[in-house]
Design goal:
alpha/beta, five-stranded mixed beta sheet, 17% strand, binds 5'-O-[(R)-(carboxyoxy)(hydroxy)phosphoryl]adenosine, binds zinc ion
């Protein structure tokens, strides 16, 4: 298909609890972006409530889209295309974001791209100016967020091979659950990391599930149960800060070691597929954890890979990555019909992601 779009791309992200909007110019330069976190709305419930998320996206998006366009100094008539996360994620929020994007696309007769949220994370490293040499295909992606934990061979736009993933919880989910046990509130990852800095990571020898086993699958439920047992041994509410800090530090160390071990195997698998591969891209909210970054950097160094993680604001959910993924697809002439239905489940390596393979 011919490349028929021209002009800036508006991106919309609403798959979970971030309402995000961004406008990128044709070259991928960020003209404006905004992220509204719904943390305050969900915190009283200790996690994301899908119905509240959808309503909050609906309340925030119309104004936020207009504000982002204004910040970019653009009118809707000057847009070249619209891209929105269409899955995987919470269906209510996905419908809200997709419908807004489709409405703008219909009104302005613009190309529309239904972006796979995981593809957006996968392609973020290719944003112009992010890495000194860019991120040329193929590279290995380790996606570690609240909802996802997987190793993916990124071989081209739309060309992904899942090498392994979690068989129970995602890494961020494990952080959130342990943080909850320790009374740190939600979301727990950043608070747990702060507390861990005060603790002794060798105090508890927690299990490292699947460590030194073949492949690059992950499991965190056994670790979670082991931590819960230690916490329960102390009386409810009576956990001294120093005890909690030791538990947090020991847990974080176990996760970091497991992730480094699994990523090590994934790099070997990647090399076997593509001998030229030398880049490990880490994305997702958990990638902002310092101890985990350090462990992954060491694992990459040991395998002759370079570990790169986009800056934190691009690692967590945002719309810059959605607009960029849209741009990557638009450049190939890949757009979607207005009838595209948002999808709560949408694996990255599903047939159809790569239009050239059709
Ligand atoms: O990518 P993200 O913003 O949203 C999705 O899940 O898609 O990731 C959020 C997850 C949460 O589970 C949060 O607790 C975790 O990332 N997280 C962290 C840290 N910052 C965020 N986990 C560990 N250490 C952190 N510093
Ligand atoms: Zn995400």
């Amino acid at each position: 298909m011919a490349n028929s779009f021209r002009g800036p791309v508006l991106g919309i992200e609403s798959s979970c609890d971030e309402t995000a909007t961004a406008v990128l110019d044709e070259s991928g330069r960020v003209l404006a972006e905004a992220v509204h976190s719904q943390e305050r709305e969900h915190a009283p419930f200790g996690g994301v409530v899908p119905e509240i998320a959808a309503r909050a996206h609906l309340a925030a998006l119309p104004h936020q889209i207009r504000a982002t366009m204004a910040k970019a100094g653009l009118t809707f008539a000057e847009l070249g295309a619209v891209a929105a996360s269409a899955g995987p994620g919470l269906i209510g929020g996905l419908i809200v974001g997709s419908q807004m994007a489709k409405g703008i696309a219909i009104a302005r007769r613009l190309p529309y791209v239904a972006v796979n949220h995981l593809e957006a994370h996968a392609l973020t490293a290719r944003l112009p100016g992010l890495l000194p040499d860019g991120a040329a295909f193929p590279y290995l992606l380790l996606l570690i967020s609240g909802g996802h934990c997987q190793c993916v061979a990124v071989e081209g736009v739309g060309r992904y091979v899942r090498l392994g993933g979690t068989i129970d919880d995602a890494a961020g989910e494990a952080f959130d659950k342990i943080a909850k046990l320790l009374g740190l509130g939600w979301p727990g990852g950043p608070a747990l990391e702060k507390l861990a800095a005060l603790g002794d990571s060798s105090r508890h020898d927690f299990p490292r599930p699947l460590m030194r086993r073949e492949g690059c699958d992950f499991s965190f439920s056994g670790l979670k149960t082991a931590v819960a047992r230690v916490v329960e041994r102390c009386e409810a509410g009576a956990l001294p800060q120093s005890e909690a800090a030791d538990i947090a530090a020991s847990f974080q160390r176990a996760v970091a070691e497991v992730l480094a071990d699994r990523a090590g195997n994934a790099m070997a698998m990647m090399r076997a597929r593509s001998p030229a591969a030398r880049l490990l891209v880490v994305a997702g909210g958990v990638a902002s954890n310092g101890a985990i970054r350090t462990a992954l950097t060491q694992a990459a160094d040991a395998r002759g890979f370079q570990m790169v993680a986009p800056p934190v604001r691009l690692c967590t959910d945002n719309a810059v990555m959605v607009a960029w993924a849209g741009l990557e697809r638009l450049r190939l002439g890949w757009t979607d019909g207005i009838g595209f239905a948002p999808r709560p489940r949408w694996p990255l390596d599903e047939p159809g992601m790569d239009r050239t393979a059709a």
